[in-house]
Amino acid sequence: MNTTSKRRFKTRQLVLLAMLTAIVAVLAYFGGFIKIGGLASISLTLIPVVIGGALCGPLAGAWLGAVAGAVFFITPDAAFWVGLSLPGTILTVMVKGIMAGLCAALCYRLIEKINKYLAVIVSAIVCPVVNTGIFLIGCMIFFKSTVDSMASAAGQSFGMYLIVGFVGLNFVFELITNIVLSPAILSIVNLAKKQFGK
What we know:
By secondary structure, this protein is an all-alpha fold. It is 81% helix and 0% strand.
């Protein structure tokens, strides 16, 4: 690839990343209003995060996850969590977004040489698993006393309430959506890579 082609490729990647950043920001904001059981919102942002990570690499995946995390603070859910612990909320939300994007992109990179479809499926699964897993760890570290109180009031154990009350069907929805849309994600990735000449 000559210097002009490299410059053109980088420009296209930046344009694509800018577009995906805007999509992630919009979905992260409006996703804050959508809930299916539980208190946690549905992260529709995970699909463009997976696409961005697959197309532009791990740093792009981490960036898109960070954007989703930052936008969370202007959603209706933010007030509840910030009221419990501002540092805990910042750390949990930002780390889960960044790590979800980074891990999904790394998985894609590791597996794509073997099978691109498998790479997309694995990264589409890893993204919500890491996102939700870090959220649960953050709840246990920073919000345990509040969750304990809410669990007692509901007559449930800490663990059960954390899963049912805070995660609920949201994680299942995110996981199934990502898996079902994997063929579409692969098509987008293949088309974009063909356009980039990569």
